[in-house]
Amino acid sequence: MPTNNIPFLRMFLIFLGLLWFDSFTGLEAATGKLASVPGLYVFGDSLVDAGNNNYLAISISKANYPHNGVDFPNKKATGRFCNGKNAADAIAEKFGLPLPPPYLSLKGPFKEEKKKSAAMTGVNFASGGAGIFNSSDHKLGQAIPLSHQVNHWLSIHQELTSQLGPAEAQNHLSKSLFAVVIGSNDLFDYFGSLKLRQETNPQQYTQSMADELKKQLKRIHDTGARRFLLIGVAEIGCIPGKRAKNSTVHECDEEANTWCSLYNEALVKMLQQLKQEMQSSMTYSYFDNFKSLHDIISNPARYGFTDVTSACCGNGKLNADIPCLPIARYCSDRTKYLFWDRYGHPTEAAARTLVDLMLSDDSQYSSPLTLAQLISS
């Protein structure tokens, strides 16, 4: 090839590369449409677990087997309760960050460099089955409750401070995002425990959930965290497993939804109080997952879904008779399903839709700031 053609070829290939790059989700972060975030630190349950439960010795609350991960890179079942990436992953991609690795994957010999790197860009502490309280799942070794997740964060905070020094670590943390997605399992515990329901009424129980969450948020804030994303509990009465129990018309369990609303109301009030106490040192975005899911179920076509009642992966009525085990069957087009399994974990398409709503200028789902406004504040 004549040498005078090489510059033209190089420019042409760069042009093609830009066209290819422009077609992928997350371009907003790379092109500056979204403010930058140096790190993403994730706390919560199976909605955002990236595989921490894989490292628990006796836990059966794991998703490190097919058909989970069928749409993850290399069709890998990582421990995410999803066909692909979850909401925490989608948020990381929006801001151009690596997917936050599970904290427990960073422990052990020969992992120091990996831990140092992850501490800077983000770590996922979430655990399938986890609750705000130290629930029965924790007692049986099935999950890592929120208080223990915060203990793990303290280890990462120490690593950050060691690397950057106190002043620079504080600057890093003040610009980072701390996402908290938890509460559903505490409500499931309440639904399923006659003892709990005899000891306390729904209002008292949901208020105690908010009070305990406040303690843990304060612990995180005390380490230098300033920007929080709190995601409310969804309409868990409308998940496939709940609907399937209504043998005739498969309607939502409205009693369960009422309790979810009670908790979300307590959560919103608690966050307002916490911000007042913290004054200008805390900003947050509360995302109304209950309303967003309700709107998607009410008008699925608007969001690109055709099935918002069945599980994509399972068997039997509404594909909800069994969990998403290797013996289950799964739908051919996962982009059209809202729910991945009987427990109501979103498909990757649904998780991305919810994250888009968090970032949207439409504030009907977010208060007092949208996620985009929180990062820009």
Overview of the molecule:
- With about 375 residues, the protein is an alpha/beta fold.
- Helices cover about 45% and strands about 10% of the residues.
- The protein is built from 16 helices and ten strands.
- It has a six-stranded mixed sheet with strand order 2-1-3-4-5-10, with helices on both faces. Strands 6-9 form a two-stranded parallel ribbon. The chain has a two-stranded antiparallel ribbon with strand order 7-8.
- The longest helix has 25 residues, at about 255-280.
- The radius of gyration is 21 Å and the shape is globular.
- It starts with 5 loop residues before the first helix and ends with a helix.
Shape: globular
* Mean pLDDT across all amino acids: 90
Please tell me how large the radius of gyration is. 21 Å
Main sheet strand line-up = 2-1-3-4-5-10
- In N-to-C order, the SSE pattern is HHEHHEHHHEHHHEHHEHHEEEEHEH
The helix-and-strand class reads alpha/beta
Number of E strands:
10
Sheet having the most strands: 6 strands, mixed
Q: Strand share of the residues? A: 5-15%
What is the rounded distance between the termini?
A: 53 Å
Low-confidence stretches: 1-32
Total helical elements: 16
The amount of helix comes to 40-55%
Secondary structure: elements and pairs:
Blueprint: H1 6-22, H2 27-31, E1 40-44, H3 87-94, H4 112-121, E2 122-124, H5 136-139, H6 146-164, H7 166-175, E3 177-181, H8 184-192, H9 194-199, H10 202-222, E4 227-231, H11 240-244, H12 254-278, E5 283-287, H13 289-298, H14 300-303, E6 307-311, E7 313-314, E8 329-330, E9 337-339, H15 348-359, E10 366-367, H16 371-376
Helix pairs in contact: 4-6, 6-7, 6-10, 10-12
